[in-house]
Specification:
mainly alpha, 5 helices
């Protein structure tokens, strides 16, 4: 299990990457396909560390897509161009593990 806010830092790095103007909607959401495969795997009595880390990172990413992410020394947060489409895809991906939430 990650600690020391590693999931938040990873979510911020992913969000910053998703601010690139040259990404298409397909590119901005397509990287979630293998993540969905991981999360759609069999439910275990105990959640594997890789699954828990992934869930926490994706939930933090969802927040950053709504509020924006600060990049470098910028004072203003930037919302990725495809934020709404990515958020919809995140909900689809997260639904299997937390259907009561999404």
């Amino acid at each position: 299990m990650w600690r020391d806010q590693e999931d938040d830092r990873l979510a911020a790095a992913v969000a910053a990457t998703l601010t690139r103007e040259d990404l298409t909607t397909t590119e901005a959401t397509g990287w979630l396909d293998p993540v969905q495969e991981l999360l759609a795997g069999p439910d275990e009595t105990r959640v594997a560390a890789r699954v828990s880390n992934t869930l926490r990172t994706l939930r933090a990413l969802h927040v950053l897509l709504a509020t924006g992410v600060k990049i470098g020394d910028q004072t203003e947060a930037v919302i990725p161009p495809h934020a709404a489409a990515i958020q919809r895809r995140l909900v689809e991906v997260l639904h299997h593990r937390t259907p009561w939430m999404w």
